[in-house]
Design brief:
Elements lengths: L1 H5 L4 H19 L25 H12 L28 H16 L4 H30 L3 H12 L2 H7 L5 H21 L4 H8 L1
Length: 207
């Protein structure tokens, strides 16, 4: 009975649904950093009182980009000393994460969303990225084995990993980075398994 369930072609959907439920719970209960002005909803220095490592810096950087002109682009060439609490964004490699996340935050700010609402928005986007990472990981397992049971057990194990669920539901760039790594791994494995040179292009894109 258990084996038939694990070997079901639709089992992965239930696994992802379980991951979403876990992540939604984490989205709500993880304590975020608070703005020093007590209001937030815009770029302002944040306290280091949240449980997410460097969460105050991630949120601050997203707000920072959200208040920059769109045509200024993602590259920052100079920072004021008062902004260095976020880290050195001039040399920080994750600037693209902050820049991309700033666009939905711009929209939320235009509707005067509260600081907490914007935090939930950022976290829900991370949850979606976590689902995409699971789907790409599933594609990797399909390259490795034809056994549905092994594919689903591998996916289930990753989806139950506490750090994966927790990071997917928090404000950070770890799971987006993992998604890109999975995408690169899948395309590089496909190059050898499928003997298709077109995967070289996608390897370069995800790298």
């Amino acid at each position: 009975k258990v084996r038939s369930i694990i070997s079901s072609p639709s089992a992965y959907r239930w696994i992802i649904a379980l991951f979403i439920l876990q992540a939604l719970f984490s989205v709500v209960i993880i304590s975020p950093s608070t703005p020093k002005d007590g209001v937030g909803g815009r770029y302002v220095e944040r306290n280091e009182d949240g449980v997410v490592p460097d969460g105050h810096r991630h949120l601050g950087a997203i707000y920072y980009y959200a208040e920059r002109p769109v045509l200024a682009g993602p590259v920052i060439s100079d920072m004021a000393d008062s902004d260095l609490w976020m880290g050195d964004l001039v040399r920080f490699p994750s600037y693209l994460y902050y820049s991309v996340l700033s666009f939905p935050v711009r929209i939320a700010m235009a509707f005067h969303a509260s600081d907490m609402a914007i935090i939930y928005l950022v976290r829900l986007i991370g949850l979606v990225i976590g689902v995409l990472a699971l789907l790409v990981f599933r594609r990797i397992t399909q390259l490795v084995t034809s056994s549905l049971a092994v594919q689903n057990i591998s996916l289930f194990a990753l989806s139950l990993t506490g750090s994966f669920v927790w990071l997917a539901a928090a404000e950070n760039y770890d799971v987006p980075s993992l998604l890109l790594w999975f995408a690169f791994l899948y395309t590089s494995m496909s190059l050898f398994v499928k003997k298709d040179a077109r995967y070289l292009y996608w390897m370069a894109v995800w790298f």
